[in-house]
Amino acid sequence: MKIVKYIGITLIVLLLLFFSIGLVKPSFEYSSAVTILAPPQKCWTALHDTTRMKRWMPGFQRLTLKDGLDMQPGATYEIVILSDKLYIMQETVKEVKPEEYISYELINDVMKSEYDFKFTINGNATKITNQNRIIGNNLLWRSILFLSKSYLQNGAQQQLESLKL
Predict the structure, then answer these.
(1) Max Cα separation, the chain?
(2) Distance in angstroms (rounded) separating the CA atoms of residues 128 and 123
(3) Per-position b or e across 18-39, b if 16+ CB within 10 A of its CB
């Protein structure tokens, strides 16, 4: 009987620790970067070419403009990703400086993600830097997403490496 009590207490402590992560870390950031031997305009075009997104964005199905003017602040898109199931997300352009900078906000059932891409000339190459800020929609997701930070960061880096190809 004592063993059941100790197991119960241990489980409660572990659950409290897990949920405390979401309280202490409601959001987090990570970044990735890649240098491509191409001018910024070519990199910009490749990043936004929906006919090629399947090549560098795993599970990409479609991106549909739902509101606003294409590639302008306030433009809202529906992005559909097929992974283990179909994910439908809303992406909004926040700020645009063509071939230099673009920022987005992505919202889905799990989180809100604020992210941007910066294009910097580096000799005869372009460095693309991607900065992400993740905010879980509730305490459970905040904890899960924080514990998944390295997975998310590796995925973002892999996408940029695939874009480079």
Answers:
(1) 71
(2) 13
(3) eeebbeebeebebebebbbeee
Torsion angle of alpha carbons 138, 145, 101, 37, nearest 10°? -170
The per-residue pLDDT for 145 is 95
SS3 85: coil
Taken as a whole, the chain contains a residue count of 165
Q: Write out the E strands in 68-124.
A: 76-82, 86-97, 101-107, 111-122
Q: Locate tokens 């305490």: which residue? A: 139
Separation CA 12–CA 49 (nearest Å): 49
Task: Dump pLDDT digits (tens) for 112-146.
Answer: 999 999 999 988 999 999 999 999 999 999 999 99
Contact criterion met (CB below 8 Å) for 125 and 36: yes
Are residues 104 and 115 in contact, defined by beta-carbon separation less than 8 angstroms?
yes
pTM of the model: 0.88
What is the rounded distance in angstroms from the CA atom of residue 101 to the CA atom of residue 114?
Answer: 14
Q: For residue 147, give the H/E element and its range.
A: helix 139-147
